[in-house]
Write a structure and sequence with these properties.
Blueprint lengths: L13 H36 L4 H13 L3 H14 L4 H14 L2 H14 L4 H14 L2 H14 L4 H21 L1
Length: 177
């Protein structure tokens, strides 16, 4: 039989594949929601068993933060800091939650404390740079990105944000001339 005599096979239309894709996406997000639920329950159980464990509060706070519950996250980070006042990671995490809420000054205060407690951590410098950038203080943002890069030379996000800050700074300087 000649290949020209073969009838072309029907191609599955977008409607069928889109419906299947939508179902897969729904299942994926249901599984993600279930995973967050399991994480929250796990951290709550640890807190009930060991209520003096700041790591459990910090991890629960990170889970709330990732899930978009900023107030719940801040509450957990507060408790972690109360239990361990020198917990740099909890200050950094609380700063992220404050910055996402738009309270950049409180975020910067928390990043300052995290840097004071752990001056070799690149993340608090990077995050403080974001907060300064959100406030429009590009000089301080660039300085913090420089610090983050100095501490972690492969910190791609810091290079990128520093470049964006420089570009914005140049555009603003050009606009005022």
């Amino acid at each position: 039989m000649d290949t020209q005599d073969k009838e072309p096979k029907p191609v599955v239309g977008n409607e069928v594949s889109t419906g299947r894709t939508q179902r897969k996406k729904r299942v994926f997000w249901i599984l993600i929601a279930a995973l967050f639920g399991v994480l929250i329950i796990t951290f709550l159980c640890v807190i009930v068993i060991l209520p003096i464990l700041p790591l459990a509060y910090n991890n629960l706070g990170k889970t709330y933060y990732t899930n978009g519950n900023l107030d719940g996250a801040i509450s957990c980070f507060d408790k972690a800091i109360q239990l361990k006042p020198d917990y740099a990671e909890a200050y950094n995490n609380r700063g992220n939650a404050y910055d996402d809420k738009g309270d950049h000054d409180r975020a910067i205060t928390d990043y300052d404390k995290a840097i004071q407690l752990d001056p070799n951590g690149a993340e608090p410098y990077f995050n403080r740079g974001l907060a300064f950038s959100n406030k429009g203080d590009l000089d301080k943002a660039i300085h913090d990105y420089d610090q983050a890069i100095q501490l972690k030379p492969d910190y791609a996000k810091a290079y990128y944000n520093r470049g964006v800050s420089y570009d914005t700074w140049i555009q603003l300087a050009s606009a005022t001339e």
